Amino acid sequence: MAERLGTTEFFKYNRVMKKFPENFYWGAATASYQVEGGIENTDWAKAGRDGRVPLAGRSSDHYNRYEEDFDIAKSLGHNAHRFSVEWARIEPEEGVFDEEAIEHYRKVLDSLNSRELKPYITLWHFTLPLWFSESGGFERKDSPEIFARYCTYVVERLSDLCSNFSTMNEPNVFGSNGWLRGSWPPFKRFSLTDMVSITNSGRTFESKANNGLGGVFLYFRVMKNLAKAHNVAFDSIKQLSSNVKIGVVKHVIYFNANWNPINKIIAFVANHYWTHIFMRRVYKKCDEIGLNYYFHKKFGDKEVYEKTDMNWDIYPEGIYWALKMLNRYKKPIFISEAGLADKADKYRADYIKRQVESTWRALQDGVDVRGHMYWSLLDNYEWALGYEKRFGLVEINYDTLERKIRPSAYVYKKICESNGLDN
Ligand code: BGC
After folding, report:
1. Peptide bond between residue 171 and the one before it cis (omega within 30 degrees of 0)
2. Which tens digits make up the pLDDT trace of 45-84?
3. What is the whole-number distance in angstroms between the Cα of residue 309 and the centre of ligand 1?
4. What angle is formed at CA 138 by the lines to CA 329 and CA 167, rounded to 5 degrees?
5. Is the full-model pTM beyond 0.90?
6. Contact in structure between 158 and 243 (CB atoms under 8 Å)
7. What are the tens digits of pLDDT across the range 360-369?
8. DSSP-assigned letter for residue 136
9. How far, in Å, are 178, 182, 189, 209, 215 from residue 212 at the CA level?
């Protein structure tokens, strides 16, 4: 006979089981340019043709194989999926919207909904339509309005099939890789010289530097325009589709420090710079926030960590602190990306368990976490690093396009199906 649990036992049981709230969303994420294949009219595709970054090519051909991929996600116990739509497909020329592209994403949404995989859409994940990047992209004064027009159009056309949208993915990563480090389009490294030499995956090329007096401010102008773009898009979407939830996806690095007060000040400034400047500009126009967590940096730390294939410290526990950092904005949070590159699948299962456990701890502390999307469902195009790095729960053979589920995906499946960790 089933034992009736009193409240104390119930909470004890919940603590041992590390149960998540009912209706918690478990899934994985992808981004259009990294998996779809066949996208040629973006700044990244041009950079590929110019030999500055690896070509994305047909990628994992997710554009044609999404049904098969969602069958896999479903079989792995997922009940949600985050993906992005490709701006350059939808608006291939300025102000001209392609109905066929919209129809494609409507089919993708039907396919998710029919499998009861709740869709989370990212409206823009790094790649820009060529017409926009070549006319200045987010350096343009009118970029917020251009972006808002695109976002509003897409939400209007898809909101009957999807209720959660993020306007943009990781604005700080986009800005700093494009205008400070210069390793991503438009390759403007901050420098005192006129030209800089950039090396990406063994390709070396000369690029016009982000320099001079104007150069100092260019990165900040782009960051400001991105925040404004989100805010203008939010207002414009809400006028037409008031029922949808709109947010941003924010990359958070958890900076902390050892005992040393100087290190503590550095960590405080770094968190402010990387996370809070942008969040303060946009949080009032967010119904929810997506958190992407990959790494931490502890100033003065002597500890040696094992490394992922990206050479990032294995420290999934940092997600607890990243969640706490975003908690100050008092919005529901969903983990929109967290995961690791691990071709041999040596660390992934343990990493996921520790990441989930740390998320559970944040929930116990009152952080309103609604979902957890592992990055990534599939192996994919890792930007300037090409196809070497393997983040997928599912391995892709790029010659045959065969999909093979990695063992760690079954560990995650157990977590998803039991809505928590049982140890
Ligand atoms: C990005 C993904 C990327 C992942 C791993 C995130 O910064 O949103 O596009 O593949 O990190 O580097």
Report:
1. no
2. 999 999 999 999 999 999 999 999 999 999 999 999 999 9
3. 14
4. 40
5. yes
6. no
7. 999 999 999 9
8. T
9. 17, 15, 12, 9, 5
What gap in Å lies between CA 67 and CA 111, rounded to an integer? 7
Question: Does residue 211's CB lie within 6 angstroms of at least one atom of ligand 1?
Answer: no
The predicted pLDDT at position 214 comes to 72
Beta bridge partners of 196: 207
CA nearest neighbour of 61 among 87, 81, 34: 34
- Tell me what pLDDT residue 26 has: 98
- Spatial contact of 341 and 390, defined as CB atoms under 8 Å apart: yes
DSSP structure string for 294-335 = EEEEEET------B-TT--B--TTHHHHHHHHHHTT-S-EEE
- Ligand 1 pocket test, pick from 375, 378, 381 with the greatest ligand atom count within 8 Å of Cβ, gives 375
CA distances for 71 relative to 113, 149, 336, 398, 405, angstroms: 12, 34, 20, 20, 12
Distances (CA, A) of 356 to 203, 273, 328, 361, 373: 38, 27, 21, 9, 11
Which tokens in the block code for residue 393? 């729960």
Ligand 1 centroid–CA 82 distance in Å is 13
